Amino acid sequence: MASDREKLETETIEQLADRMQDGPSTLRHYHSALAELERRKAVWQFEAAEAQKAAASFAESTAKYTKDNARYMLLSVCAILFAAVLSAFFSYLAWMYPHH
Fold it and tell me: pLDDT (tens digit, 9 = 90+) per residue, 46-65?
């Protein structure tokens, strides 16, 4: 046979609220419903904390990839600059020493 707590575990939040409003706070079912609500809040807080940890981990990996991407972009700009300088240098040489 299921205990009172196990029975309350399957009830919705609305059903718990109805159970709590059925009588004064001295009744056993009120306290059982309140305890179940507090248990669920603890579970939700734990799940929220786990989700925050996962989000932080994803943010950390995103930051790493962003940093790597910025490094590659800087290297690309340096390569383009080097190619432009070489092109300008050889253009200058071709202008200064034309072949007839």
Answer: 999 999 999 999 999 999 99
Q: Tens of pLDDT along 17-34? A: 887 776 666 677 788 888
The alpha-helical segments, DSSP class H, found in 12-27 are: 13-21
Closest CA to 25 of 34, 15, 16, 12: 34
pTM (global) more than 0.70: no
Collapsing DSSP states into helix, strand and coil, what is residue 16? helix
DSSP code for 70: H
Q: Which helix (H) or strand (E) holds 6?
A: helix 4-9
Q: Phi, psi at residue 16, to the nearest 5°?
A: -65, -45
* Distance of alpha carbon 81 from the chain centroid: 38
